[in-house]
Every structure is written in C-alpha cells, then in structure tokens.
Amino acid sequence: MIPVAAALDALFALTAPLDAEDVPLARASGRVLRVPVTARRDQPPFPASAMDGYAVTDDAAPGAPLRVIGESAAGTAFVGRVGPGEAVRIFTGAPVPEGATRVILQEDVTREGDRVMPAADAFGSGTNIRPAGADFSAGHGMAPPRLLRPNDVALLAAMGAGTVAVTRRPRVAIIATGDELVLPGDAPGPDQIYASNTFGLAAHLSALGAEPRLLPVARDSVAALSTVLSLVDDADLVLTVGGASVGDHDLVARVAGDLGLDRAFYKVAMRPGKPLMAGRLGDAVMIGLPGNPVSALVCGHVFVAPVVRAMLGLGAEPARRLVAPLAAPLAANGPREHYMRAERTEAGLRAFERQDSALLSVLGAADALIVRPPHDPARAAGAEVPYLPL
Ligand SMILES: Nc1nc2c(c(=O)[nH]1)N[C@H]1C(S)=C(S)[C@@H](COP(=O)(O)OP(=O)(O)OC[C@H]3O[C@@H](n4cnc5c(N)ncnc54)[C@H](O)[C@@H]3O)O[C@H]1N2
Ligand code: MOO
Q1: Which of 53, 107, 318, 382 is found 20 to 30 A from 262 (Cα to Cα)?
Q2: Pathway involvement (predicted)?
C-alpha cells in the first residue's frame, strides 16, 4: 500500500494537459481557457454617460437656463460641441459630446420646449461620466489557464472575443464490472443490484468539464472484461469500477495486465478506496476503482477529479481542502487515511455514525469528507480538522 499523496503523484506523472480547440464564446462556459485573450479597444471606447439626462459644460449652474441643441443616444452620438449656455439631451451609455464635463440627471431639471433649467441640487452627485477605458483598456488580457465562469464569458464578450481556445474535453470511458449489476430502469434478478457508482462518476465528470462515456457492464469473465476494455477507443482516461480486490471474481488487474497495462501502483493506504489501481493502458491513463459505491465515488474526488483537472491544463493539485472545527469528538484513526462522510453544521463538522463504504444514502447526506491522516489520534469537539467540501 502506498500513501494517498504518492498515489496522486504517480497519477500526475502519467497525465499531461490535452490539446486545445477553438469554441464559439457562447459554448465556452465551464471550459478551460488555454490561450491569452487581449482586448483590442478600450471599454467604454469613449467617455460615456452613466445616466439619462443632459450633458453640460463647466459653466452650467443651478437656475441658469440652457438651450438643448441636440441628442446623444447609445449607438448614435451627437455630432458637434456643447458650449456654455447649451445642453445635449443624453442617455445612459451614449458618448458624451465634446465640451461637456458632466451629465445632470433628467430628474434634476425642468424642461420647457428646448430649454432646461437645472435645479439647485443638480450638481451634487459627481460628473456621471464614465471615462474611456474605465472598465478596461486596449491590451487588457485574460490569462490562461482559467476555468471560464459565466462572468468571465461576459468579460471576454466585452473584449470582443468571438471564439476562444480551450482545452478539449477529456474523454473518459467508464466500465462497471460484475455479474450482479443491472442498469437502473432494467429489471434486476433476485441476486442483482443496480449499477450506481458509475452514474455518480459520470455526473461528477460532466460537472468537471470532461466527456464521460458509460460502456456496457462487463460481466465477471475474462472474455467479457477484455471485450469491454477493447471498446475504450480513443479515451484519455479509462475508469473501471469493481473487480479490484482479492476475490475469485476480481479480474480487472489480470485482464488489464494481459492487455498491456503498465501498472503504476495497486493498493493505497486510504479508507475507503484501498484496492485502487492505476497505470497506463495504451494512450490512456487507467484507474481501477474499487466497487463499493462510496469507495468509487470518494476516489472520484480524491484521484479522478485532480487527474481530470490536470488534463484540462489546470495544474496538478490535490483536491481542495478546507479546515473547520469538529462538532463532535472522533476516535483515533487506524493506519489508512480516512475520508469520513460528514455534514457541515453551525457547530462544525459532524461525522456520520455509519461509515460503511456501501452506504450511498450516507454519502448523499454528506457535504464534507473529513480527512484523517494515518494514525491520527482521537480528536475532541472543537479541534480543527481538514476536510474536502463536496
Ligand atoms: N478478503 C478481502 N475482501 C475485501 C477486501 C480485502 O482487502 N480483502 N477489500 C474490501 C474493500 S476495502 C473493498 S473497497 C472491496 C473492493 O472490492 P472490488 O473492487 O473487488 O469490488 P467488487 O467486489 O466488484 O464489488 C464490491 C461491492 O460493490 C458493489 N459494486 C460493484 N460495482 C458496482 C457498481 N457499478 N454500482 C454499484 N455497486 C457496485 C458490488 O456489488 C459489491 O457489493 O473489497 C472488499 N473485500
Ligand atoms: O477501501 Mo474499501 O474502499 O474501504 O471499502
């Protein structure tokens, strides 16, 4: 058994960022920017009005009437110059005409025909002019790598980027193994159960920006497993689930080995997730996950997600850890790093009573995995502990 950190390092050593592809900006959210984007012009490109009102010169004063000489609308500027005693009707976002040094709000004037009279309090609230480049200047850049969120997409649009270069989505083949498995929606025999963890893994991978493909369930025979493993095609990452332990029907190591798996490690000092296996299988990274549903999904957080992020070009980093106090004491930990299903409460982290790795109902109720290092001593309520947010 190797420590979790060593296993993760071994996986990172097998992993390289995938190449980039151009996508239209409208499809860029959730993707990872790979090439810098640079604004070609200032935003706003001209001094712009922040309010609906009247553009006036420095000479304008309360009670002094002004003649309205034209209009500047967003998209159609007033052509010409505003002089003393004059005003230009202006709207939010419109270019401020030459000569104007402030915009007074339409609520703060009285208008009769082509005359406006600023009220006493019309000059209090700043100039109401956004200078050219107030948001960003030409040359402003967005640097890669960056996981593009909706707000980034808006900024890229404002910078004029119609397409962006992003990492192509990692293709992930997911193979469930076992005679006992049927797909949800199918009719299980009396000795069968529904395949579950593969669906959770696929959902997690989609959320990470990968492209999961659920392959047919491999039955517990060398022939069936070989056949399904031959379907992985052009996958960047192959995940098998189950058949990783020491039972007579646990065939993954043997079959993957026959197919040329260059094994990096087998068995990790963690709980759940001990019989984890990984290596290179052809052009793909292969991770053999344990079958117990919680084991597979916890390994999804601890190993699969960081590998996918590395493939996306986001760097080789372990899953993000936070620290919080315990709401209740914990007994001493054993020799394996324990990822305890827990909930975040106002009083702190509370581990669930039942930590069996078969219990998806407990994992479903959890929003944190408390990380207990090997041989961590007993911890009192209030002790600060690391956890992975779920
Ligand atoms: N004698 C020993 N037995 C076991 C050991 C051990 O060290 N010595 N390790 C235990 C641990 S820890 C784990 S974890 C499991 C891992 O077993 P496998 O990876 O070989 O998984 P299976 O035996 O195929 O399945 C275990 C369990 O999970 C269910 N399963 C499998 N795939 C799915 C799926 N896609 N969806 C839902 N449930 C699934 C399967 O029905 C079994 O109940 O081994 C322990 N045993
Ligand atoms: O390691 Mo197993 O994954 O504890 O249940």
Answers
A1: 318
A2: Cofactor biosynthesis; molybdopterin biosynthesis
pLDDT surpassing 90 at residue 248: no
Residue bearing the CA closest to ligand 1, atom 41: 180
Distance CA 166, CA 197 (A): 29
Same-domain pairing of 305 and 228: yes
The type of residue at 126 is G
ipTM above 0.95, yes or no: yes
CA atoms within 13 Å, Cβ hemisphere of 78: 27
The total number of structural domains in the chain stands at 4
Element (H, E) at 23: strand 20-24
Q: Are residue 307 and residue 181 in the same domain, yes or no?
A: yes
Radius of gyration of the chain, Cα coordinates, nearest whole angstrom: 31
CA 102 / ligand 1 centre spacing (Å)? 72
CATH code, 65: 2.170.190.11
Question: Using an 8 Å Cβ cutoff, are 58 and 169 in contact?
Answer: no
Q: How confident is the model at residue 172 (pLDDT cuts 50, 70, 90)?
A: very high
Q: Is residue 317 part of a domain?
A: no
Judged by DSSP in three states, 108 sits in helix
Question: Ligand 1: which atom is nearest the Cα of residue 271?
Answer: 12
Q: Residue 125 pLDDT > 80, yes or no?
A: no
Q: Are residues 295 and 193 in the same domain?
A: yes
Nearest-atom index, ligand 1, CA of 245? 20
| Cβ–Cβ under 8 Å, residues 30 and 209 | yes
- The number of the ligand nearest the C-alpha atom of 299 reads 2
Which residues span the domain enclosing 35?
A: 26-42+136-167
**How far, in Å, is the centroid of ligand 1 from the Cα of 88?**
76
CA nearest neighbour of 144 among 167, 168, 169: 167
Residues 192 and 297 occupy one common structural domain: yes
User: CA-CA distance, 7 to 311, in Å (whole number)?
Assistant: 17
Is residue 52 domain-shared with residue 34, that is, in the same domain? no
Residue 280: both structure tokens together: 């290179």
Same domain, 90 and 223: no
| pTM score, whole prediction | 0.93
Indicate which CATH number applies to the domain containing 183.
Answer: 3.40.980.10
- Helix or strand holding residue 310 (H, E): helix 305-311
Q: Please work out whether the CB of residue 271 comes within 6 Å of at least one atom of ligand 1.
A: no
